[in-house]
Amino acid sequence: MNKYNGSVKITLRKGILDVQGKTVEHALNSIELYMISNVRIGKYVELTVEADTPEIAHSIVTEACKKLIANPIIEDFEIIII
Questions:
Q1: CA–CA gap between residue 46 and residue 79 (Å, rounded)
Q2: Which domains, from first to last, does the chain contain?
Q3: Res 70: pLDDT
Q4: Which residues contact 53 (CB under 8 A, 6 or more apart)?
């Protein structure tokens, strides 16, 4: 078995209101940073996975995201395996 490092970027789906992002955007505007807009807040996860190949590692992390790490109803995720 090999060990692979993985990273997962999780974001709300496009049609889902990002309340945290809107709050940060409003705060930025209140400190006169008007040039910043469309703020979206997400999550970043790093992990190590043991697998025979990078492809198998990717499928393991995908399963983990679908079952626990991300909420597939309202979130999208991108996985990178190194």
A1: 10
A2: 2-81 (3.30.1280.10)
A3: 98
A4: 2
CB 46, CB 9: distance < 8 Å: no
Beta carbons of 25 and 75 less than 8 angstroms apart: no
Strand 2-12 to strand 43-51: parallel, antiparallel, or no bridges (unpaired)?
antiparallel
Residues in the chain: 82
Mean pLDDT by 10-residue block, N- to C-terminus, for the chain (82 residues)?
Answer: 98 96 98 97 98 98 98 97 97
Alpha helix stretches (DSSP H) within 1-82 = 19-30, 54-64
Is residue 12 helix, strand or coil?
strand
